[in-house]
Each structure stands twice: as C-alpha cells, then as structure tokens.
Amino acid sequence: MNKTFIALAVAALASTSVSAAEVFNDGTSSMAIGGRAEARAAIQDGDMADNSRVRLNFLGTTAIGEGAYGVGFFEREFKSDESADENRYIFAGIGTEYGLVTYGLNDGSLGMITDFTDIMSYHGAVASSKIDVADRTSNNIAYKGEFGGLTVKANYVGENDDVKKGYSLGAVYAMENGLAMALGYADQDNLTKDTESQLEAAVSYTMGDIYVAALYKDGENKTSGVKEDLTGYEFAAAYTMGQTKFTTTYGKAETESKDTADSIAIDATHFFNSNFRTYVSYNFNLLNENEVATKIQAEDEMVFGLRYDF
C-alpha cells in the first residue's frame, strides 16, 4: 500500500522531487533522498565565473489513515558562493487521491505555467518571472490536485520577508493529442504598501521528438496610486535526437517605459544516462546598453555545465 502513497506524493511533488532513491521503507512509512551536483562555468565579457551548485533533498511519506498519507519535504541548495546558499523547500502536508495540502516554504501556483517555456538547461525564462506569492515562498498554504489531464493549484501566503499577503491560482489541462493549455492569476500586497497582480497563459504542443510552446504574461504594479503595466511573452522549442536535446527560446519583457528583458537563447544537452548529462548554453542579449544599469547586463553569455542527478 505504501507504494501507492509514494506514487501520489511524487506526482504531487513532481516539480521538487525530480529523482530520488528510497533508503527506508517499513511498509507504512518511507524515506527517499535525492538531489543533484552541477558544475557550471559562465563566460561573459571575457570573464569566467563559477556558478556551480549542489541540491540535496529528503522526501518522507507515511500512511495516516484509509486513503490518506502524510508527507514532509526538505531541500537545500549549496552554491560555490557560500553566501548564496538557501533552503529551497521546507514543508509538510496531508494528501489523498483528491490532492495534497501543504504548509511551509513551497511553490506558488504559476510555476507549472512558466514551465511551458522554461525548458533550457541554463538560460531562458527571461519574460516569465513570477511575483512572490506565485513563486517559491514561505508562510504558504498550498493545494495541488490532479484529475485526469487537469492539474489545479491554489495557494495563500501570509506575511513573510517579501510580501504582506497574497494568493495565486493556476490550472493546466493536457490532452492526449499532445496539446496542453494553462492559465493562472496572482495578486499580492507588498510590505511597502504597494500592490502587484499578474496573469499568465501558456500553450504547448508535443509531437514525437518535437516540442513547441508559447507564454504570455500581463501584470500590474501599483505604487502610491500610480499604476504601471508589465507585459512579457516567450516562445520555446525543443528537438530530441537520440540522447541529445536541442532547445531554444525567445523572450521579451517590458514596462510602459522600457524593455526589461530581450534575448534569444540556444543550448544542447547530451544525456549519457538518466543520471548524468552535459550541456552548453548561449544567450544572445538583445538589450541596448542604455536600457540597463550596467554594461554587463547587456552582454551575451555562454555557459558550460556538467550535471549528476542522484
């Protein structure tokens, strides 16, 4: 019976538990450990930076009643710059076949929508950034349910270091013909007494080894009664040839006064097996120097990476 609970938990935590090895199972409770070690060298304007990182996570599940299970999840990321180390997830919850409810440091509801175009090994996703309550955040009550091809998420966030309060809602519907559609909305009150809202919509199509997707974002930031519109759109495509996957994205984000992101990115990732891959990723930055605070923010970037999942 515990295998059923594990399957339900892993499905509900698909965005956080990519790979895991079960280290304990007594028929009622289980513990799995997963993560990744990723070496990343980023070259920009002739200089090379070490952006390497390690993620380590623990997933526990236990049967707590007829058709119900408890779950706990923790993940921490360690970076080559130790000052940037962070806890990515700290939460626990109760789940049934009708969904999983958790509380703690967990995802908001728009990540599954931005995942439509956030497909690259390193770059991309320049136009699909989420406001805090729709992203990974703390003091977060979250729900996720899967019903056939429909996945729904909802969460409410109380006051934390980033926001006063807020919520987000999202839904993804995947058809058997390879077409998938997504829609989500988020709204928050900030600690500075201004407000932000965001609408995101995405569509994708998969046909064999070919994947294409598009995303549109419309947002609003209101400060001291002054409203500013924030919009963005992104296109993504991928082609898998044997054990190598080629991806590309184009993204643009803008306010009423200027472009905040504008780039084309390409990469190639070779999967030696399910645990080890290598990739090269290049970002063509289309922003002008007069649109950014520093010159480096308008420079192209190349990244080489090696990744081991465990």
Automatic annotation (TrEMBL):
Signal peptide bounds: 1-20
Listed name of the protein: Porin
Localization in the cell: Cell outer membrane
Pfam family membership, one: Porin_4
Sequence ranges assigned to domain Porin in this UniProt record: 7-285
UniProt-listed PANTHER family: OUTER MEMBRANE PORIN F-RELATED, PROTEIN YDDL-RELATED
Originating species: Enterovibrio gelatinilyticus
InterPro entries in the cross-refs: Gram-neg_bact_OMP, Gram_neg_porin_domain, Porin_dom_sf
Bilayer topology term: Multi-pass membrane protein
Keywords in alphabetical order: Membrane, Signal
Domain of life: Bacteria
Main subcellular location of this protein, as a coarse class: membrane
